[in-house]
Amino acid sequence: MTALLEIDHLSVNYGAIQAVRDLSLRVEEGEVVTLIGANGAGKTTTLRAVSRLLRPREGSVRFAGRDVTRAAPDEVVRLGIAQSPEGRQVLARQSVEDNLELGAYVRGDRAGVQDDIRRMYERFPRLGERRHQLAGTLSGGEQQMLAIARALMSRPKLLLLDEPSLGLAPIIVLEIFNIIRELNEQGVTILLVEQNAKLAMNSSHRTYVLEAGQVTFSGASAELVSDERVLKAYLGG
Amino acid sequence: MELTQFIQNVLNGVSIGSVYAIFALGYTLIFSILGIINFAHGAVFTLGAYFTYTLAVGQFGINGLLKNVDLFPNGSPLGSSVPGFVLALLIGSVLAGLVGVVIERLAFRPLRSRGADPLLALVSSLGVALVLVNLIQYLVGAEIYSFPADVYGNLKPALVLHVGEKLVVIRTVQIIIFVVSMIMLIILGYLISRTKIGKALRAVAENPGTSSLLGISVDRYVLYTFFLSGFLGGLAGTLVATSFGIAGPYFGVTYGLKGLAVIVLGGLGSIPGAVVGGIVIGLAEAFVPAEYSAYKEAVAFALLFVILLVRPQGLLGRALVQKV
User: Fold this and answer.
1) Is residue A129 situated within a structural domain?
2) DSSP alpha helices (H): ranges in chain A?
3) Do B214 and A94 touch (CB under 8 A)?
4) Is B216 in contact with A74 (Cβ distance < 8 A)?
5) Do residue A51 and residue B213 have CB atoms under 8 angstroms apart?
6) What is the CATH number of the domain that holds A183?
């Protein structure tokens, strides 16, 4: 197995506040890896550093064997890392279809992009029904699906999902997690950040538990989900 | 007011209003991307007119560093024909666009990358405006330069319409200004609403962080925006200059202020707003009676004041400004 993403001794600061310190993690090709932890543990910061929206203070990020610690944000996308950000962040003032097209911004093959948009409408029929609507008029669940579909439009090797279940009704959350499982079965490697720890662990191969910007436990999700310490801290007993 | 006078005023107003619109769009584009007003835009308007004049005529007056210079002893290869002048107009506007790019790199980006207060960018752009205006004065003096009457070819100077017994006179240059401005608006509208670049530009305006995540280079699009803005400013400057002449290095100052009135009137950051605002201000000025024409500018700002009392967000502005 080769590591698709390797984060080594990463530290990221927000001004004087150290949000992530000396964090190391690996995501192997074909895996779903979950990052869990309390608010402010550094999960989103880690994803934002991988996507190069934040500049790491120390450490390195390697993707498919290549050092991307100092790469430009658009270069990271070109290399195959897409992110569906926290809070979905759809482009509210543009149509669903334009959102998807912009997801494929780094691609040059127009015909292939149109094919993929059609495929997204098959997988997410509700997006197809609303293709000409402004993205801001979609429901929360639909926006989340759009954010995931948009990230997939760049045909990423690695998909970063930040809190995909946040603020959604339980039934929609289950739907989103079904989609995550399906995507993984089709070969997409996923790094998932979730508040809903139990569901995330049940849907992933391995889990890293973050606390105050550091990894406190890590291991196979199936084992960690019944680990007493993790249960106590994150699963409410 | 008589019907013919009314028609005359409307035609005059729409013509000058259309050029106000493309000029003001230069402010709007930058405002919608960066949320700041580029005060150097009026100076870019002036520069555009001087660039085109240099290319098309190439003769300068008796002051400044370039005094008595005659760049083209046998007449400009560009200015002596209509296609040549069109080329001069295009190159002049492209040069103005490049000045916009330089302004972004020197006056805006260094502040932005340090996370400076937007107010500082405003002051910085004011400084650029002063430098540009003084540079022009240093190079070519403060003289008035006029384009030759035949830059648009040997057309009739005016179109005369008979309305009943009376006459309505439209100067040919007014028609050209209107047509060129409309073509520019259509191209710009297509570019922004239909093309990949336009969609990406709107994405950057709405949410720069998300745009980065999609692989859109925000800095590159900011540069594109400054180029477009400068191009529009330079084009507007030349168009106005072919009608009224270049009134010296401070030529763009009045237009710069008027452009601000246009975008505030239309609604900050709104593209249709800039177009409507431009036409409204053009019309308002045209209806100022000739004996009060010295107060034209006052009319634009009085109108702005009254409309903002009723609609603080401007004519087509969003009631709630959302800036992520």
Assistant:
1) no
2) 43-50, 73-79, 96-103, 110-123, 125-129, 140-152, 170-185, 197-202, 221-224, 228-234
3) no
4) yes
5) yes
6) 3.40.50.300
Q: Which fold has domain B3-310?
A: ABC transporter involved in vitamin B12 uptake, BtuC (1.10.3470)
Contact residues, B window 214-233, toward A, CB-based 8 Å cutoff: 214-217
pLDDT confidence of B324, banded at 50, 70, 90?
very low
Cβ neighbours around B320 below 10 Å, total: 6
- A156 lies within 8 A of chain B by CB: no
Q: Give the total number of structural domains in chain A.
A: 1
Phi-psi region of A62 (alpha: psi -120 to 50; beta: other; left: phi over 0): beta
Nearest alpha carbon to residue B21 among B177, B226, B198, B246: B177
How far apart are the CA of A201 and the nearest CA of chain B, in angstroms? 26
Q: Which amino acid does the sequence have at B140?
A: V
Give the containing element (helix H, strand E) for B5: helix B3-34
ipTM over 0.90: yes
With a CB cutoff of 8 Å and minimum separation 6, the contacts of A107 are: A113, A153, A154, A155
Q: Print the domain residue range for A25.
A: 3-91+156-234
* Residue in A48, A68, A76, A77 to test binding to B, most B beta-carbons within 10 Å: A77
Q: For residue range A113-171, what is the model confidence (pLDDT) as tens digits?
A: 999 999 999 999 999 999 999 999 999 999 999 999 999 999 999 999 999 999 899 99
Question: How far is it, in rounded angstroms, from Cα A97 to Cα B203?
Answer: 13
Query: Which of A72, A77, A92 is facing B214, going by the closest CB pair?
Result: A77
User: Is there a contact between B215 and A92 if contact means CB atoms under 8 Å apart?
Assistant: no
Q: Which residue ranges make up each domain of chain B?
A: 3-310
Of B203, B212, B217, which has the smallest distance from its Cβ to A94's Cβ? B203
